Amino acid sequence: MLRGDGRLNFSLAVSDDDEKAPQDQCGVFGVWAPGEEVAKLTFFGLYSLQHRGQESAGIATSNGEKILVYKDMGLVSQVFSESALESLVGHIAVGHNRYSTTGASSWRNAQPTLGRTASGTVALAHNGNLTNTADLLQLLAERYPDQKTNEITSGNTTDTAVLTALLAGDLDHTLEATALELLPKVKGAFCLVFMDESTLYAARDPQGVRPLVLGRLERGWVVASETAALDIVGASFVREVEPGELIAIDENGLRSSRFAEVKRAGCVFEYVYLARPDTTINGKNVYEARVAMGRTLAREYPVDADLVIPTPESGTPAAIGFSQESGIPFGHGLVKNSYVGRTFIQPSQTIRQLGIRLKLNPLREIIEGKRIVVVDDSIVRGNTQRAIVRMLREAGAREIHVRISSPPVKWPCYYGIDFASRAELIANGLDVEEIRRSIGADSLGYVSLDGLIAATEVPSEKLCSACFTGEYPIRIPEDLSEGKMRLEITEVHGN
Predict the structure, then answer these.
(1) Which among 397, 394, 379, 399 is positioned nearest to 439, based on CA atoms?
(2) What pLDDT shows up at residue 378?
């Protein structure tokens, strides 16, 4: 039975109809390092990637003969104890932090997932979201009609489970050969880190939607979702895993194969919100990009004000940039409760009415009587910004000007970010002036798409900005309208 950790979650304070921030996708980590405590390296790597998924965590290790797995619901620090890590022996490890974008948030859907291969076992961790899961399910039924035991038959309802079952192969093909044959058939966003008993693998979709990097240890190799995870385990950055590339690492060293042509379309929202600010993506430091977004905001939507404050922590770098460009002093007018975890305590109506104050509380002494610029990364439904504006007015702010370091979010993401549905997105039905009135601000400005892209220093044709434009670089089939639970729906309908 799951136990709460005694720490408050923002969801405690809000109803189902209230604001839900864009949810991070998943974090993946893999290490090949004979002589090292690979489970502990993976633990710390996942710890640094905790922001990418908070629902479950898991680690698989191999000693060359067998694979061991430990996974559970909760944060990395909750799931793993010292004794659990010491039991995960070996020289290869794969780890995963999950936020559910396909399949329910449940133990059966935690990763790494396991499957048989022609010569042993595969353990797989996946960041992203596939767009042709229905086709892959059909392929699985055709290719392995007699496969009685796999993650799917055990109740797993994720696209990751489908991939794992398809990696089974046959006696005439190694796992590597099977992967090279399968991956060109896989569509959507995927960063895969997987292993069998002897080899660590990493693969990235041809668009490179989600980040994946390669690092070097003194006695081994590391692959991870972000460069911050390399830093924490002392690995030096080597390069990105290229879009459409499969990497294999074993006792013979590292080898690279290409399974698809590069059609780069990296997620622009990684720069806005998803990645850690100390991460580098495609050669650009994320913190610097966010500061540049704030500078652009100040040029595009100037205002006379006394103080620039961020919505912590997501708006802090952009607020610093806005302050630097405008000359308006930067300060902290909102205090964040950092102790956010999982809870199973049901709030009373009185607590619900406190709303966002469980997460943020205003500093009256800082903001009273002042004209305030509030900088945040995005507006989804508008409820959080509305609550912040109300709190600041109650605390005595004379004027409140909201500035957003991304364009209006009008379209859902099908590549691994769990936005609200299109009908729930406030910018889909209202223009900027109407949104301003809705949240109660004195003025509202969003950074332009051109300004955002310029801040990343990546050409627009190499970025995915579909959540702002509706132009999806990977075709979206109709069955994705069923949402993250579509495999559960398929199961219920018997299709």
Answers:
(1) 379
(2) 94
Percent of the chain with pLDDT over 90: 71
Residue 384: enclosing H or E segment and its boundaries? helix 383-394
Kindly state whether residue 240 falls inside one of the protein's structural domains.
yes
**3-class SS of residue 84:** helix
Domain that holds residue 155: 10-264
The per-residue pLDDT for 483 is: 45
292 shares a domain with 422: yes
Same domain, 219 and 175: yes
Give the separation between CA 147 and CA 202, rounded to whole angstroms: 25
Q: What is the pLDDT of residues 107-149, one digit of tens each?
A: 788 899 999 998 899 999 999 999 999 899 999 999 988 887 7
Q: What is the domain count for the chain?
A: 2
Rounded Cα distance, 62 and 393, in Å? 57
pLDDT of 330 above 50: yes
Question: Would you give the DSSP letter of residue 216?
Answer: E
State the pLDDT confidence band at 347, using cuts at 50, 70 and 90.
Answer: low
256: three-class secondary structure by DSSP: strand
- Decide: residue 170, CB within 10 A, 0-12 exposed, 13-18 middle, 19+ buried: exposed
For residues 167 and 302, membership in a common domain is answered with no
Omega cis (within 30) before 112: yes
Q: Residues with catalytic annotation?
A: 26
Residue 453 near residue 463, CB atoms below 8 Å? yes
Alpha-carbon distance values, 117 to 91, 173, 176, 282 (Å): 20, 9, 10, 34
Residue type, position 373, single letter: V
Count of other CB atoms within 10 angstroms of residue 64: 12
